[in-house]
Each structure stands twice: as C-alpha cells, then as structure tokens.
Design a protein that fits this description.
rod-shaped
C-alpha cells in the first residue's frame, strides 16, 4: 500500500501560472466593466432627479418672516 508521490512537471507549473494570470486578468476586466456600468446607471439616475429637485415645492410666493 505504498503511495507514489509525483513531482510537478515544469509544463504543469507553466500551465498553472498561465491559467492563474489569465483568470486574474479576466476577473479584473469584468470587474472594471461592471463598475463602469454601475457608475453610468448612478449618473443617469442622478440626472433624472435633478430637474425635479429644482422645481419649488409649492407655488405660493415666499414671504419674509418679520419679528417685532
């Protein structure tokens, strides 16, 4: 019942690092794209809210408060 241990071949190590770097690059690109989309959606929502916020809440003319 002996267990034979195999050493990692240089080809395996090279392939492992290529796949590791590729997965990191893909993760970085996907993260950047998702972040850009989220920022774009937030800006679009903020632009929709701005015109409504500029209108006065009531149509009554403002009166100055005078204290005697």
């Amino acid at each position: 019942m002996g267990t034979s241990l195999t050493s990692l071949t240089p080809e395996f190590v090279r392939l492992f690092f290529v796949l590791l770097v590729a997965s990191m690059a893909i993760t970085f690109v996907v993260s950047a794209v998702v972040d850009a989309l989220v920022v774009r959606l937030q800006l679009r929502r903020a632009r929709r809210r701005l015109p409504a916020a500029r209108e006065p809440a009531s149509r009554r003319p403002e009166r100055a408060l005078v204290r005697h």
